[in-house]
Design goal:
The chain has helices at residues 44-61, 75-87, 100-112, 208-216, 250-265, 268-287, 320-333, 360-384; strands spanning 68-73, 93-97, 118-121, 138-142, 166-169, 186-190, 201-206, 230-231, 234-235, 293-295, 307-312, 350-353. It has 385 residues and is an alpha/beta fold. The longest helix has 25 residues, at 360-384. The radius of gyration is 22 Å and the shape is globular. The two termini are 14 Å apart.
Length: 385
C-alpha cells in the first residue's frame, strides 16, 4: 500500500452529488443579486420572474406551445404526486419500475391510492421492456433511473394513438436527454438536477390530453389543496403562468433563471446534452479496459448520461457494500469526490453525477483517483488477510 502513488491531477470541483447537483461553472452568489428578496411572489416583479422561468423552460426544452408548464412545491416528488392523485383512477393503470423512486410511485399508487395496477419491475441495471406495456392503460415510469444509472433510450415504443396517459418522472433526464413530447402527457422534474438549482421546487408539464383528463374526471378520493389543479371543473390556468400554489423561494427562482440563461448561452438543449454525454463518455472510456469496475447498466444503450452508476467486479472483494463505502470515503477524504457513493437502496458501488453543470475535465481527473482508491482498499484487504 505504501507503494501506491496518488494521481497528480485533481478535479477542480469535487462535487459529484446526484442531487442537489454541482452549480454551473463559475457560479457565485453575486449572480443572484437581481432576486426580488422581501417582495411578494404575487407582486408584478415576482410574477414576471416566475413567468420568465416558465417561458425559458419551454424555449430550452422545446415544449410545445399547447402544453402547460407549472412551478409546483415539494420538488419532483411533489410534481409526481400531484399527477398521481389528480389523474389516476379514470382508466386501468400500469406501473413500471427499475429503481427506488419508481418503486416509490408503485407504493403510492397500490398502497395509498389502492388502485389495482399492473406492475412491471426490472432489476437495477436494467429497464422494463416497453414493447410489453399496454398503453391503453395510464402508464407511470421514470425516464432515467437516478439510483440505477439506466434510462429509456427513446420513446419509440410509446404509440402516438395511445388511449391512456403517460406520466413520466424525468427529474434526472430533463435538460440532459431529448424527451419526445408527443409521447409524454405528464412530465415532471426538479431543477436541482441537471441545472444544479436549489432544492424544494418541482416543474409539472401537462399535454392537452392531460388537461382534458383533469377537466373531465374527478377522483374518488379527496385531493389535498397543495395538489389541486382544477376549480369548478376547469384548469386553474394561473398555476401555469406563474401564480404558484404556495409561496416559492424567489432566491431559488432567480438561481433557476441564472442556470436557464447559462444553458441558453452554451447552445440550449443540444449544448446541455453534449456536455452530459461527454461526461459519461469520459467514464466509459476509462473503464472500458478495466476488469475490476463496470457500469451497472447491463445494456450500454440504456446507460445513463447523468447518474452514472458503477460496480466493483474484482473477485477479491468479499463484502461489496463495505468495500464500496470505503472507496467512497477515501475519495471524499482526498477531496476529489464528494457524495459519490451509491444510493442506499442500490447495489454497492459508486454513483458519479455527469449532468451538464459538471466539467468533463473534472470527470476525467477523477477517474485515476477512483483507480487509486480501489487499489488502496484492495491493498488494505490483502494486508488484513
Amino acid at each position: 500500500m505504501a507503494d501506491l502513488i496518488a494521481p497528480a491531477a485533481r478535479p477542480a470541483n469535487p462535487r459529484f452529488s446526484s442531487g442537489p447537483c454541482a452549480k454551473l461553472p463559475g457560479f457565485t452568489l453575486d449572480m443572484l443579486a437581481d432576486a426580488p428578496l422581501g417582495r411578494s411572489h404575487r407582486a408584478a416583479v415576482g410574477k414576471a420572474k416566475l413567468k420568465e422561468a416558465i417561458d425559458l423552460t419551454r424555449e430550452i426544452l422545446g415544449v410545445p406551445t399547447d402544453y402547460r408548464i407549472g412551478i409546483v412545491p415539494a420538488s419532483d416528488t411533489g410534481a409526481v404526486e400531484m399527477a398521481l392523485w389528480s389523474l389516476l383512477g379514470a382508466r386501468p393503470v400500469e406501473m413500471l419500475a427499475w429503481e427506488s423512486f419508481g418503486e416509490g410511485w408503485v407504493t403510492d399508487v397500490v398502497k395509498q391510492l389502492k388502485l389495482d395496477a399492473k406492475v412491471q419491475k426490472a432489476g437495477y441495471g436494467e429497464i422494463v421492456d416497453f414493447t410489453t406495456v399496454d398503453f391503453d392503460r395510464d402508464v407511470v415510469f421514470t425516464w432515467n433511473g437516478t439510483t440505477s444509472g439506466v434510462r429509456l433510450p427513446n420513446g419509440d415504443a410509446i404509440p402516438a394513438n395511445r388511449a391512456g396517459l403517460t406520466i413520466c418522472d424525468a427529474t434526472s433526464a430533463a435538460f440532459a436527454m431529448d424527451l419526445p413530447w408527443d409521447k409524454l402527457d405528464v412530465t415532471t422534474f426538479s431543477w436541482q438536477k441537471v441545472l444544479g438549482g436549489e432544492g424544494g421546487h418541482g416543474v409539472l408539464i401537462l399535454s392537452p390530453r392531460a388537461v382534458e383528463r383533469l377537466e373531465s374526471y374527478t377522483p374518488a378520493w379527496p385531493i389535498p389543496k397543495i395538489f389541486r389543479m382544477t376549480k369548478g371543473g376547469k384548469l386553474i390556468e394561473g398555476i401555469f403562468t406563474g401564480e404558484t400554489i404556495n409561496t416559492p423561494s424567489m432566491l431559488c427562482v432567480e438561481d433557476y433563471l441564472v442556470a436557464l440563461k447559462w444553458a441558453k448561452s452554451i447552445g440550449g438543449l443540444k449544448g446541455l446534452i453534449a456536455r452530459s454525454e461527454g461526461n459519461a463518455r469520459a467514464i466509459a472510456d476509462f473503464i472500458a479496459d478495466k476488469d475490476w469496475i463496470a457500469n451497472l447498466a447491463v445494456d450500454p444503450a440504456t446507460a445513463s448520461c447523468t447518474s452514472v452508476c458503477l460496480k466493483f467486479t474484482d473477485a477479491r472483494i468479499r463484502d461489496g457494500a463495505a468495500f464500496a463505502k470505503a472507496v467512497a470515503k477515501r475519495l471524499e477524504k482526498e477531496g476529489v469526490a464528494l457524495d459519490a457513493g451509491a444510493y442506499r437502496d442500490a447495489p454497492p458501488g459508486l454513483r458519479i453525477w455527469c449532468g451538464a453543470t459538471v466539467e468533463t475535465t473534472d470527470v476525467a481527473a477523477l477517474m485515476p483517483w477512483v483507480e487509486f482508491a480501489f487499489a488502496a482498499e484492495i491493498a488494505a484487504l490483502t494486508e488484513a488477510a
